[in-house]
Amino acid sequence: MAHEIIVKTKILQSGTERAVCIGIDNGKITAVEKHLDGDREFDLKDYLTLPGGVDVHTHMREPGSVQKEDFYTGTKAAAFGGTTTILDMPNTIPSVKNELALRDKLDIVKNRANVDFGLFGQLSDIDQIPGMANLAIGFKLYMSETTGTSGTIKTPLELLLNSDSLAGKVVTVHAEDPRMFADDVCDDLHRHNLIRNMKAEFMALRRILSIDSQVKLNLAHLTTAESIDQVKAKRASFEITPHHVLLHDASNIGTMGKVNPPLRKKVISKRLFDTLKTGRAIIASDHAPHTLEEKSVEFENAPSGLPGVETRVPLMLALAKKGMIRYIHVQDMCCTLPAELFDMKKGKIEPGYDADLAFYDMDNMVKIEPDMLHSKCGWTPFEGHDAVFPRRVMLRGQMIIHDGELAVEKSGKFLQ
Ligand code: NCD
Ligand code: ZN
User: Fold this and answer.
1) CATH architecture of structural domain 2-49+352-405
2) What's the rounded Cα separation, in Å, for the pair 135 and 118?
3) CATH number, domain 50-341
4) Where are the domains of the chain?
5) Is the dihedral of CA 87, 93, 94, 97 positive or negative?
6) Helix/strand number for the chain, H first, E second
7) Annotated catalytic residue 286
8) Cis status, amide bond into 289, omega within 30 of 0
9) How far is CA 337 from CA 51, 98, 108, 179, 287, in A?
10) pTM above the 0.90 mark?
11) Which of 55, 83, 141, 236 keeps 20 to 30 A from 403, CA to CA?
């Protein structure tokens, strides 16, 4: 039987590169074999093909802060970075703490996404959870205030996490205990790290991991190897960001590196990097763009957050190309594990999975420049870092990135 589409390319199978044909029908992968017939054929034999990336932690800023980013630009940036699924955090304006806000947000963004997307609800008031539970792909819990999150938690944590409507759902936790924060002048990256210190992370983790519940706990943006040990002991999942492994508090990037939780010392970031060699983390960007204007103020007054949805997979692939981490781990950490956590049929090149694919020419390593990127914010803390961007990107069987252009717009689908 001829498939609608076949792609001849190289993929990673059990850790090694293999030349295969991927058969695609109705937007799904239907076969992966040595030889296949198809009505339409893409010859991409020279490219290394990964599943489309799944970024489970982004802030696309719509509604409320579209001067920083909007759903169209943020998801376009994702696509250009080989990411075909993003999950959007609830600290938009108004924040998504009830069903009405969630429905309104969905109405605003649903026809403008260039990649598939899901929306988080924010945990605050237990009575609001049932109304959000069907639409939200997961829930976010902020244990401290951070950019755009005020009046954070109304119901005691134990009760909140034991809401019947949360059973089996992913709860992603921003774990910083504000009682540990030092009271000091925050005038550079080094001080920001001392103020929102590692102890704040350890204490918040200890507290959240001590609560019994039926939720799937996922700890966002862990910054130290010790934090990971703490979380692994409780069999929870966790995210690591590219910035916490590649940047540190002495990186000379000023307010561009101001982010919560903060960039740590170089030695801490190196040890965090080493944990990637086991391939067990979820790599998420925490894409949190602010405008250059908003960042161009005194350090203390600058908002926390930095962009990263477009550079997440390309940075990791460059590290793999240089032999610092394994390709198969990049695939696991950027695609497979995040999709599995949220029960998506994505993140693998196997029959039954969505035909979301990103095609990379691994000989085309470049240095990141802001003007290559597509986020509305127009800057990156990773300027000068090596990266491998995809040549083409397919979303459910449609080539959405082709010849350096967004070839198909707004074909992203809502995931719930
Ligand atoms: C995020 C933002 O700007 O929305 N900022 C950040 O520093 N990470 C909020 C957050 O996730 O803490
Ligand atoms: Zn975030």
Assistant:
1) Roll (2.30)
2) 9
3) 3.20.20.140
4) 2-49+352-405, 50-341
5) positive
6) 13, 18
7) yes
8) no
9) 12, 28, 29, 33, 18
10) yes
11) 55
Residue 219's identity, in one-letter code, is: L
pLDDT range class, residue 154, cuts 50, 70, 90: confident
Of 196, 151, 160, 154, nearest to 176 by C-alpha is 196
Residue with tokens 């919560």: 260
- For residue 149, pLDDT beyond 90: no
Give pLDDT, residue 148.
67
Q: Is the peptide bond before 178 cis (omega within 30 degrees of 0)?
A: no
Query: Which atom number of ligand 1 is nearest to the Cα of residue 260?
Result: 7
The dihedral through the CA atoms of 288, 53, 413, 339 has a sign that is negative
Q: Is 285 in the pocket of ligand 1 (CB under 6 A)?
A: no
- Indicate if ligand 1 lies below 6 Å from the C-beta of 258: no
As a whole number of Å, the end-to-end CA separation of the chain is 33
Smallest-distance ligand from the CA of 289:
1
How high is the pLDDT of residue 258?
Answer: 98
Is residue 1's pLDDT more than 90?
no
For 27, the token pair is 């937007």
C-alpha distance from residue 15 to each of 10, 279, 329, 349 (Å): 12, 12, 9, 13
| Cα 19 → chain centroid | 29
Which residue is listed with tokens 């802060």?
65
Q: Could you give the CA distance from residue 31 to residue 151 in angstroms, rounded to a whole number? A: 50
Q: Is residue 369 a contact partner of residue 84, using CB atoms and an 8 Å limit? A: no
The Cα 168–Cα 141 span in angstroms is 15
Share the mean pLDDT of the chain: 97
Out of 12-21, 342-351, 387-396, least confident range: 12-21
Task: State if residue 69 touches ligand 1 by the CB under 6 angstroms criterion.
Answer: no
* 163, two tokens: 């809401």
pLDDT score of 153: 80
Residue 32 makes CB contacts below 8 A (sequence gap 6+) with 11, 20, 21, 22, 23, 349, 350, 351
